[in-house]
Structures are given as C-alpha cells and as structure tokens.
Amino acid sequence: MDQVSLEEVDEGLTGLAWKRVDNELVLELTMADFASALEFVNQVGVLAEEVNHHPDIEIRWNRVVLRLTTHSMGALTQKDLELAKMISSL
User: Fold this and answer.
1) Does the residue 48 lie in any domain?
2) Less Cβ crowding at N or C end of the chain, within 10 Å?
3) pLDDT-derived band of residue 1, with 50, 70 and 90 as boundaries?
4) What is the CATH number of the domain that holds 19?
C-alpha cells in the first residue's frame, strides 16, 4: 500500500464533498435528524467492513464527521481515496 501524493489526493477528490486536512480526508454532513445520521453511518460501516478500511466516525445528533487516513502509514493512500469515493456514492 503506497502513500499518494497531495496532487493525487486533490485530483482524486475532484467533484466530491471531501476535504484534505493534513493527512486526513474529512467529510462533514448535516442530516435531517439523529436517525438519518445513524442510518448513514451504518451504511458507511458496511462499506468499511467490505474493504477492511475504517474511517474515524463522529456523530453529534444530526451531524456526521468522517475522517479517513491510513493509520499504519501515517499518510493518505489509495485505499482512503477509494473508500471516500464509495462513501460519496451513498
């Protein structure tokens, strides 16, 4: 698993709501209510398990924040970009 360059990250995020913050990809969403936020997070969990790559997840009532990075490398990798794209398709 190779680290991706900042240029590759920025290019990979084109058209997506994700932002690069240091060595993380961050997505912040506001849902209709807590139930909607929880439903979305459960869908993210299914995807994460399928690809064995897991985001850090924060839920605050109707607000969801996802953070992706490859902790074992301390950097962003292709796995982060791929999961960000999958999550964006939900």
Assistant:
1) yes
2) C
3) low
4) 3.30.1360.20
Domain limits for position 54: 6-88
Instruction: Please return the burial class of 85, using the count of CB atoms within 10 Å of its CB with bins 0-12, 13-18 and 19+.
Output: middle
How does strand 24-30 pair with strand 19-21? Answer: antiparallel
Residues 26-81 pLDDT 10s: 999 999 999 999 999 999 999 999 999 999 999 999 999 999 999 999 899 999 99
In a domain, 1, yes or no: no
Domain count, the chain: 1
Distance of alpha carbon 62 from alpha carbon 51, whole angstroms: 26
Residue 15 DSSP code: T
> For residue 87, with 0-12 CB atoms within 10 Å meaning exposed, 13-18 middle and 19 or more buried, which class applies?
buried
pTM of the full structure: 0.94
The structure tokens listed for 69 are 């990075």
